[in-house]
Design brief:
GO terms for molecular function: DNA binding; transposase activity. This protein is an alpha/beta fold and 405 residues long. The protein contains 18 helices and eight strands. The N and C termini lie far apart (68 Å).
């Protein structure tokens, strides 16, 4: 900048005007944009001068012109002239080679928007509107890929040795692979720690839901430090309970009542559904297991001839469906359905529902991971009345649940 041509009063008036109207002082046409450009270019020149020591100059290395590049910042885009050396060894630090985005804060904003479900197109448009900076979809993809090491680190992190209650359920998505849209199953494990706070223990991807894959998921939890799960809440997937007990033999398994009811209604004629539900309620709302079994017997007497498959299903699955009767009301309310993890899934789907088919398994994991990080920010308090619940669990499970008191 020519010091003789520098008009301080004009700069001050322009800066004050832009400051009052909320315009960026460093962005395009900003009052301080030339100063930032000069500062960065001067700093780069000084870095090169420092690197070109006497030895390098003796070997023939020297300055070799400048290259122009667009540097994107949270205040706009700057056209920067970066110096070069003849040997190509110059490694600037203030603005590194191939670095096109200066502010980490801008990258954090981009990752934040991506984590709230915005598409690359929407993010690019938003960045241009707010920061007067254009960023391509490929650059945005590279920025969000910085989340990948965090995802892998999170997936492999050590876990606590004991979880009081764990819900295991799956979500289904579409992923485009080799030009074809394929189904992906995302396995989620949501647990309650001894302090009563929620934690998503793991997130895994497979082509379909099955007990065999759940077995590998549970084994991974064990390898990451989980020694015991007191109560596991699951849907009615065949072989699921057996897979859990293979890895955690002492775990009490509770199958979801709501899933069982939904599956039953698929085989009940619409004209009978209202009456069937009325007769079914005394079974799962009974005060104790003996009363529930008595009511299940009455349900069978009335409906077995017409719907033998449904009644047989309740009888076959009764041991897994009736686990909750051995616990006090507060624990029953938590475990007799998978509503807790389904509520978590609803929050995730609010973000992912507009995505259609994901470009890869990792793009799916990236978004669910970021969404989970946002959701878990609210998991700062123990569950309601947890002090009573943990005391009851401690009495029931004895030495398996040692409290830090």
């Amino acid at each position: 900048m020519n010091k003789e041509a520098f008009d301080y009063d004009a700069l001050k008036q322009k800066a004050l005007s832009q400051f009052r109207t909320g315009k960026s002082l460093f962005g395009k046409d900003g009052a301080f944009a030339p100063l930032l450009k000069e500062f960065l270019e001067t700093a780069l020149e000084e870095e090169l001068d420092e690197q070109l020591d006497g030895q390098q100059r003796k070997e023939g290395n020297r300055k070799n012109g400048k290259l122009s590049k667009q540097l994107k910042t949270s205040d706009g885009t700057i056209e920067l002239l970066t110096p070069r050396d003849r040997s190509g060894n110059f490694e600037p630090q203030i603005v590194k080679k191939r670095e096109t985005i200066l502010a980490e804060s801008l990258e954090k904003k981009i990752i934040g928007m991506y984590g709230h479900g915005m598409s690359f197109r929407d993010i690019s448009s938003h960045i241009e509107d707010i920061y007067d900076t254009q960023i391509s979809a490929s650059t945005l993809s590279s920025i969000t890929d910085k989340v990948i090491p965090l995802v892998k680190e999170w997936q492999a992190r050590p876990l606590e040795s004991v979880y009081t209650i764990v819900w295991l359920d799956a979500m289904f998505y579409k992923v485009r692979e080799e030009g074809k849209v394929q189904t992906r199953c995302v396995y989620n494990i949501l647990g309650i720690r001894k302090d009563g706070r929620k934690e998503l223990l793991g997130m895994y991807i497979s082509e379909s839901e099955g007990a065999n894959f759940w077995l590998s998921v549970l084994t991974d939890l064990q390898h990451r430090g989980v020694e015991d799960i007191l109560i596991a809440c699951i849907d009615n997937l065949k072989g699921f309970a057996e897979a859990i007990r293979t890895v955690f033999p002492q775990t009490e398994v509770q199958s979801c009542i709501v899933h069982q009811i939904r599956n039953s209604l698929k085989y009940i004629a619409s004209k009978d559904q209202k009456e069937f539900i009325k007769d079914l309620k005394p079974v799962y709302q009974a005060l104790n297991k003996a009363e529930a079994e008595d009511n299940l017997s009455k349900l069978g007497d009335k409906w077995e001839k017409k719907y033998p498959v449904v009644i047989d299903s309740w009888r076959r699955n009764w041991d897994k469906l009736s686990t909750y009767f051995q616990y006090p009301a507060a624990i029953r309310k938590l475990i007799y359905t998978t509503n807790t993890i389904e509520g978590f899934h609803r929050q995730v789907r609010k973000v992912t529902k507009s995505k259609g088919a994901f470009t890869s398994d990792m793009s799916l994991l990236k978004l669910i991971y970021l969404t989970t990080q946002n959701i878990s920010k609210k998991w700062t308090q123990p569950l309601q009345n947890w002090s009573i619940t943990i005391s009851q669990l401690s009495i029931i499970f004895g030495d398996r649940l040692k409290l830090d008191i």
